[in-house]
Amino acid sequence: MTQIHDRLLIIDFGSQVTQLIARRLRELNVYCEIHPYQKVTDAFLAEFAPKGVILSGGPASVIDVDSPRPPSTVFDINVPILGICYGQQVMMEVLGGKVESGHGTKEFGRAYVTPTADKLTLLDGWFADTREQVWMSHGDHVSKIAPGFEVFGTSPNAPFAITADTSRNFFAVQFHPEVHHTPNGAKLYENFVKMAGFKGDWTMGAYREEAIAKIREQVGDEKVICGLSGGVDSSVAAVLIHEAIGDQLTCVFVDNGLLRKGEAEEVVTMFRDNYKMPFIHADERELFLGELDGQSDPETKRKIIGRLFIDVFQKHAGEVGGAKFLAQGTLYPDVIESVSFSGGPSVTIKSHHNVGGLPEKMGMKLVEPLRELFKDEVRALGRELGLPAAFIGRHPFPGPGLAIRCPGEITRPKLEILREADAVYIDQIRKHGLYDEIWQAFVAILPVRTVGVMGDGRTYDFACALRAVTSVDGMTADYYPFTHEFLGETATRIINEVPGINRVTYDITSKPPGTIEWE
Ligand code: XMP
Fold it and tell me: For residues 366 and 326, is the Cβ–Cβ distance under 8 A?
């Protein structure tokens, strides 16, 4: 299928903030992709046919012999190029300038850039205030600019903070315009994409049409199955695919007995009753809870759930008969191959539950219509497709469900208490209008009983912990600063309304050092 949108290529040299460049561009309705520099060969460039290129920052030093380089042809394809930090340095080195190391010119953090006399289109809207705050993070610096380049901005430690070769539309900046600490940075990107001729036509309406055409082309007359978790990603993927191929899609929803109160009914009503999709509601509560019986080790629980999920899914998928495709709600951050310079395996903190490995095992091909989207874009697509706002705004819920909110042994009575307490807590949060400010909120039931007094009697019931965090991507998180009134009122409600709990605590651990879930 022909590519409808102009594309911008971000060549990644391993900066921690490369994804932010993509975010800034998507906000300008420009379609872009991030690819590691090793992958960007001449053939790749020819096929990708970018209308503009950005060279990201990165931790390497261009002075090192084996430091990463873009293919030299990138400078011959006649499109505007913007080099950022390491991207600037590598551009200078390759095009005939010079880069030197440190010695008093290392710069990390806030800096101020002032303009030189000449005007540059890239800087339209800059320097209204004579100087601009920018974010620097570099050890090396450019000591001689390449032939054809001029200086358009300087900072005390970076005399070549902004340089350009206007005849070729090559731009190179030492700072990071993509981070929030460069408050006017978005404007640079806006000017850059305008100069490169991008129309800004990457909208959700256009994406929807394009994605539907792609799904039809990929799937033809074949059948597709989709594992629905009730989460936003798989739901949006299912509705989009259903719009493309109608009843060729069957959704499989596995009730593993570890869902929240009313969750199974909500998902069934939404997809089977409202959308009238072919739908398998697999009630596998006995199987999951049976195998989890007596298990208290967090990793063992996770592995059991992961294994059973694959078995069950496979069994029910068989009922559809001859499905050749498996749909998944994979998002762009899962797809980006980031550049790793350390090369070492990272430590497994938790074995995340997902259906990875399933397609190979089942000999199926994947349909992943959200592969190009970030989470907030998936939400925008969901709105475009008419999914209810409350559904789209739901907090993330982990694959292993309530199992990882029930430290120690999982029993049915404990799960029941947990469901009720969680429902009261979420109701409180909604009533106080706080739901959308919080990334995730839930109750964990603790494996201890404590003594209490209610009326004139002694109680000996479970303690629970409330958790609520703010976060951008779940990688780091802060506890939510509820008022004491809110916490007091919620504790009272839970103890009064949920038999089995007589003590409520609030978890004020951030991530790191904690994790969001308790297991
Ligand atoms: P942690 O607890 O690792 O969680 O700080 C970060 C985010 O990931 C979610 N989470 C999972 N999601 N399968 C998932 O689909 C899992 O196995 C899993 N474990 C944790 C968690 O809810 C939070 O949003």
Answer: yes
In the block, which residue shows the tokens 């997902």?
354
CA distance 281 to 252: 6
Distance 76 CA to ligand 1 centre (A): 45
The answer to whether 384 and 243 are in contact (CB under 8 A) is: no
HSE-CB for 518 with a 13 A CA cutoff? 25
Measured CA angle at 423 (ends 418, 427), to 5 deg: 150
Bridge partner residues of 501 (DSSP): 462
- Is the pLDDT confidence value at 342 over 50? no
Q: Do 199 and 193 touch, CB atoms closer than 8 A?
A: no
Q: Is the pLDDT of residue 349 over 70?
A: no
Residue 272 CA, ligand 1 centroid: distance in Å = 27
Say whether pLDDT at 105 is over 70: no
Beta bridge partners of 254: 282
Tokens representing 56?
């990201």
Pocket residue to mutate for ligand 1, from 235, 349, 350, 519, most atoms within 8 A of Cβ:
350
Give kind and range of the element (H or E) at residue 377. helix 375-384
Q: SS in 3 state form for 7-22?
A: EEEEEECCCCCHHHHH
In angstroms, the CA 425 to CA 118 distance is 60
Pairing of strands 150-155, 107-115: antiparallel
Q: Compute the distance from residue 424 Cα to the ligand 1 centre, in Å.
A: 22
Q: What are phi and psi of 114, to 5 degrees?
A: -115, 150
Q: Please report the DSSP string for 497-519 in residue order.
A: HSTTEEEEEE----BTTS-SS--
State the greatest distance between any 2 C-alpha atoms of the chain, in Å, as a whole number.
Answer: 88
Which residues pair with residue 475 across a beta bridge? none
Catalytic residues: 85, 176, 178
Q: What average pLDDT is seen over the chain? A: 91
Whether 358 shows a pLDDT value over 80: the answer reads no
Sign of CA dihedral 272, 277, 282, 288: negative
- Cis upstream peptide for 512 (omega within 30°): yes
334 lines ligand 1 (CB under 6 A): no
